[in-house]
Design brief:
This protein has about 140 residues and is α+β, with helices and mostly antiparallel strands. The chain is built from 4 helices and 5 strands. The protein has a domain at about 15-20 and about 55-135: Thiol Ester Dehydrase, Chain A. It has helices spanning about 25-35, 40, 45, 60-75, and strands spanning about 15, 75-85, 95-105, 110-115, 125-135. The protein has a 5-stranded antiparallel β-sheet, with helices on one face. It starts with 15 loop residues before the first strand and ends in a 7-residue tail after the last strand.
Amino acid sequence: MGMESKTLLNKQIPKLVKQPITRVQLSQYAGASGDFNRIHIDEEFARNSPLKGVIAHGMLSMGFLGQYLDKIAGDDFHVKNFKVRFRAMVRPGDTITCAAEVMNEENQVISLDLKALNQHNEPVILGEAILLAKEEEGYL
């Protein structure tokens, strides 16, 4: 009896499409995170700023990628590493789509390239992750 091979290689990883960002969602995220920076919640302030309008919290979009990564990992993998680079601002009304591509898989260690794209197919976050296959019960 040995550990069954767990793989994502040559498998299509479904994308995760989030609902459009709402002002209510930004207020809720501000409450949950404690980040009440006016650029995220005060339309008049934001409109008069150099950004010319409200922007979503970067960590909200990163959270979408984290949710997606957790879904990919499922019951078969642990997330060992997850890092991102913020590339563009997200605004209310934007629709974020998360996608992943297997870059390498060896000895049950999987390297993924991750991206979060807006509705114009522009990257708002680029990232990387490493997944490790979980040991089967009884084979630790």
